[in-house]
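Re: [ENG-882] Designed sequences occasionally contain unexpected residues at chain ends

Forwarding the minimal case from QA. Structure tokens:
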């Protein structure tokens, strides 16, 4: 073989290799594409990860999915559902966590299964002793046809939601409830605690400085005084708000209180500011 033929043979082999690699890397649409659903619920989330088979001219239940046989509730790897906070599902307590979801479809009743094994491929490796929960629900018939298997979280309120499975004209749903009342009451109690550090003083000062609602500013400055009754600068702000409201008697009383607190703290600057405000308030009277 001469030199030219060797070059041609090498180029041909390289081209065949490139075509082979390109063919191996060719991406095609997944027959049952995966979907991840994230839904805020109560104080946490409900997340679902599953694969979505299509009907493709077939009958879903009774043929593609046999009745009274366990189904992976989707395609490919096991379907997973995550509750980031503890919930109850159809009245059963479910701790926060991730669970694989299996179902046993029936003509008049379905069994829904939450299993703690997340490494199950299809049904291989499933063990009933790993079940967290089994419960039964009734299927219903929809007016519209769902071509691609779908899992939704619907009818969401602050403490209730519904997880529904839809395929063809079959709908299977189960209720999820979050008992957050005790948590919310505790959070509210902490947020409204008299010892909290909400910025009442800053809010009142902003309203005063920017000519906003002085009634609201007075409400906030009083709350700030409750937080720190020895804060002479907060009481002085109250005196200024009252003065601006033309409540000169109230302004004098607040300024005298602020002045006494400032003397105790050794702050002569605020003593002078209060004396000046008292003098101006007396003129206003």
């Amino acid at each position: 073989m001469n030199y030219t033929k060797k070059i041609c043979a090498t180029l041909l082999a390289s081209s065949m290799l490139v075509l082979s690699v390109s063919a191996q890397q060719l991406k095609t649409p997944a027959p049952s594409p995966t979907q991840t659903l994230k839904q805020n619920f109560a104080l946490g989330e409900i997340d679902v990860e599953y694969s979505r088979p299509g009907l493709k001219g077939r009958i879903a239940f009774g043929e593609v999915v046999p009745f009274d046989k366990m189904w992976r509730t989707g395609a490919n790897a096991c379907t997973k559902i995550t509750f980031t906070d503890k919930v109850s599902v159809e009245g059963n307590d479910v701790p926060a966590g991730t669970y694989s979801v299996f179902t046993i479809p029936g003509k008049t009743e379905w069994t829904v299964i939450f299993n703690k094994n997340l490494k199950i491929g299809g049904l291989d490796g499933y063990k009933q002793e790993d079940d967290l929960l089994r419960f039964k629900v009734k299927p219903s018939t929809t007016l519209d046809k769902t071509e691609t298997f779908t899992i939704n979280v619907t009818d969401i309120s602050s403490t209730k939601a519904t997880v529904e499975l839809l395929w063809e004209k079959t709908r299977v749903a189960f209720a999820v409830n979050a008992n957050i009342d005790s948590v919310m009451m505790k959070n509210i109690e902490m947020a409204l605690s008299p010892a909290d550090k909400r910025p009442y003083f800053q809010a009142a000062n902003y309203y005063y400085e920017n000519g906003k609602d002085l009634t609201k500013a007075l409400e906030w400055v009083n709350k700030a005084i409750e937080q720190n009754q020895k804060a002479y600068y907060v009481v002085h702000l109250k005196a200024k708000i009252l003065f601006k409201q033309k409540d000169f008697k109230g302004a004098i009383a607040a300024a005298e209180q602020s002045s006494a607190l400032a003397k105790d703290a050794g702050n002569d600057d605020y003593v002078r500011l209060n004396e000046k405000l008292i003098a101006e308030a007396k003129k206003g009277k």
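QA comment: On inspection the terminal residues look reasonable. The longest helix spans residues 3-24. Proposing we downgrade this to a documentation issue.
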